[in-house]
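Inputs:
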Amino acid sequence: MAYKLDAKTPAGELAQKWSNHKAAIKVVSPANKRKLDIIVVGTGLGGASAAASLGELGYNVKIFCISDSPRRAHSIAAQGGINAAKNYQNDNDSIYRLFYDTIKGGDYRAREANVYRLAEVSNLIIDQCVAQGVPFAREYGGLLANRSFGGAQVSRTFYARGQTGQQLLLGAYAALNKEIAAGSVKSYPRHEMLDVVIENGEACGIIARNLVTGEIERHGAHAVVIATGGYGNVFFLSTNAMASNGSAAFQCYRKGAGFANPCFTQIHPTCIPVHGTQQSKLTLMSESLRNDGRIWVPKKMEDVEAIRKGTKKPSDIAEADRDYYLERRYPAFGNLVPRDVASRAAKERCDAGYGVNETGLAVFLDFKTAIERLGKETIKQRYGNLFDMYEEITDVNPYEQPMQIFPAVHYTMGGIWVDYNLMTTIPGLYAIGEANFSDHGANRLGASALMQGLADGYFVLPYTIGDYLSKKIQAPKVKTDTAAFDEAEKGVRARIERLFAIKGTQSVDDIHKRLGLIMWDNVGMARTKESLEKAIVEIQALRKEFYKDLKLVGDNESFNVELEKALRLEDFLELGELMARDALNREESCGGHFRSEHQTEDGEALRHDDKFAYAAVWEYKGIDNAPEMTIEPLEYEFVHRAQRNYKD
Amino acid sequence: MSCFLTNSSVGKKVVMSVTGCFLVLFILFHMSMNITMLFDWASYNAICRFLGANWYALAATVILAAGVAVHFLYAFILTIDNYRARGKQRYQVTVKEKGVAWSSKNMLVLGIIVILGLGLHLVHFWSKMQLVELMGGHASIVDGVAGVQATNGAAIMMITFSKWYNVVLYIVWFAALWFHLTHGVWSMFQSVGFANDTWYPRLKCLANIVSTLIFIGFAVVAVYCFMTSDALLIEEMIAAENLIH
Amino acid sequence: MNFTLKIWRQRDAKSQGAFETYKVTDISADTSFLEMMDILNNNLIHEGKEPVAFDHDCREGICGMCSMHINGHAHGPSQAVTTCQMYMRKFKDGSTITIEPWRSAAFPVIRDLVVDRAAYDKILQAGGFISVRTNSVPDGNAIPIPKADADESMDAAACVGCGACAATCKNGSAMLFVAARVSSLAKLPQGKVEGARRAKAMVAKMDELGFGNCTNTGACQAQCPKSISIAHIARLNREFLAAKLKD
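Outputs:
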């Protein structure tokens, strides 16, 4: 049964849609809000801001997070900044320009109305965060400072040193703490959602595992909000935190929620290159470095070889012998092209043999020019902590030698399908932030993830959820002793028992590393029909092996990290296949999805708007069955789709 | 208002800070008084007479004793709190953190040495001076020397410090005080909130100057007495003081 | 490189713990400390033993999750980094490394090297926020803030809440953590409005949760992965006293 997708996009002029919609949707009276329960899973920017705002409104909110405190969510690691169309720099920025840059950056695969709303509320986010005490960078006059980010020709990024995500999350976490203190929000740290419970076709609660005691708990609510981030860790090596996972989203998918554009993965161009097989995590160097850093590889192959052998230092290469390939290929945007473009350009140079470390998988990010122009002190002020971190990791001083960087998996634009109200295909089940698919199309611009998380959590969901909950004001408290809860809990227990019963020989990490390699080699930066078909076969085989040969130690009745990892890997093993299937279906290149068969003469992504101007929404049909795809056509009423051009 | 000084951690530290400050000021006064001994023992005795068992000196003594008692009592309360907060299980490996002064981690031990020294000092001096007057007497036997007037501080000092072991004991005492104050003096500013990154070097410098000054001021007088003490001089001092009474 | 690891093992809060000794071999100098732990754990799993539980997440030094006491140092011998940012090149080949969980009465051990830091959340819930509602706020540029104040606020706000301060302090005091939050908000005009209430509430909660008293040793600042200065403790003292004296 294919989905009947209704995006519920409001009619009217682009700039009026959100206002019209807000005026049209229902609200719940304060007296009734007190009677309604909401579960929020995940406490990153989206989850924390949503839970805090919903608590403020008077709903009873329960929040769940897998770490020991809501403050640990991976939003905290965002370094560079958050976009807003304030036009404080007087560089002719506007809501429309932010909207347009985001739509274009996403290679015209996002919903116009959603993106416009995102740009519209972006300004409110800055105001909100300032009022919460987020110490944004300021100028000497005491007003807010900005910097530039990829994919934009204006300076609209607000930042707090290299720790913007941390500061914004601490702001949202503080708002959450205020509500926890007030009693409107109850916090469940070290709890992992293992299933969503559906009754009469509506979401009515979750099954969660207490990660300390192993207890399986039932929690009922009138609505469930998934804010659990992305699934980049399917690649094993990524910039995501070690515990970031796609499981909560995947349980929703299993229970019938549509999963949209799973193949849209963002590969971030500026990460520290992989150094060996013992590595467990890739470290991101902020995109803000591209404000002043210049990316290059040597022009001559002999210089490449000399650098690899160590006979020449990068700083020995003369200016004339350096290929600043981004500046060469994209004169208008230069080093500040969007992430997908920068990543592919690095791959192109490395594929051509110009990669500068032993593995051949690295390019230089050089601050020589900037240090000459601005002085070491200024550079130190701007990026000091990043430079220190780089030196700590690599033992190379970036003030003297250029950094080595290479693209790495960073963000997933795909996610649970949601309508304009951020509701999934299951009534009462919402998805916000990176967990949903709605705003970034096929590629996300830098400094927009924080914007989307907070937009959804502070300014969109608290309104739109009322429209659904207004129908629930007569509903009693959700009972958790029903057949639906029984069945969900039984399912979770069976899953856990099954994993313990395998008693094989490979650890979770052994198998996860292999999945990661399959994904990176075949569903990574460049994909082909062959590679994707190969990936599907290999993942299916690996999944069989997982069920036959997993070695899981410990027990369920205590703190058991291996069990947590095994459950997440189980989902990744299905999610990886889904990503490959989606990539196989999308026979075009757009944004972060690059099918080698579909490129322009000069190697740019070649879209096929006639065939693929849609969101592919997948419906689960069982572990061994192919999922069914429904399309949501992406109508562009206001923007003319064009070949993305960052050259002039 | 009264309760935060007894029931909050920050308040308790304020009490330590204020009593500590008061004690440092007293010590500085005591040291200046002792210094006169280097120049003219008769003047020193004049000060002693002035600070006999009269109402203002007694009042000051009571306040001083209260200051010591509160400072000491709070030190124990804080230490017990802190011991509990640390938990039963201790680290197997510990190190000295960079920039952390040894004295800052051993204030209680240093304080106990200071208190023991104080006890000795009271036996040596106060029991022969103010206490004697309080009991209605005038003179006592000091270390075998009879007829020493309670106001004859100079003679008592000379007699006490003629013994080398007393000099050593007092110098150990002053050294403990030095360590205690190198941390205590800047710390009392921190505890009441008067400190920041600009002022730390200045405050720590001040703490070193004050504690070193106190150490030298006291030690010099003790050593001076040891060096110059002889039976004739002590007799002369006793005779002079008897003449006044 | 090869190492002998002496690691604290403890099944749960109620169990008695003890040190166990393990060996890891062929570790590259570029391996991070936690990757070395991953390698050890993978070996243990293959031997059918339970891996060492330890908290970690972002591995970029910002989430504050990692919390190991290594050779007597919170987060290990490097200055101003979290455990995840420690690299094995900092250790001598062939040496013995002792790894312990945070030790503080307010941080009970959950398992092995994992401790419960809920006390820090509770302190922040007591007042570590500015009471503003979503959407009822002025324009971001309506309140100019001197750059120096914003910078100082940011210095304090860099706290990752890892617990190293209380874990290092010989008094088990959480003052640096509390001060970082109070000071960060006190430096901003938005935060000053309820500054007195915040300082009192957070100190009271800290005391109630059984943290010790600050004796100004400065050990917290020396071991803080974000080098947060005890000058913020002075500001907290000031804020608290001013608030109490007004009562």
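Remarks. The two ends of chain A are 47 Å apart (CA to CA). Chains A and B do not touch (no CB pair under 8 Å).
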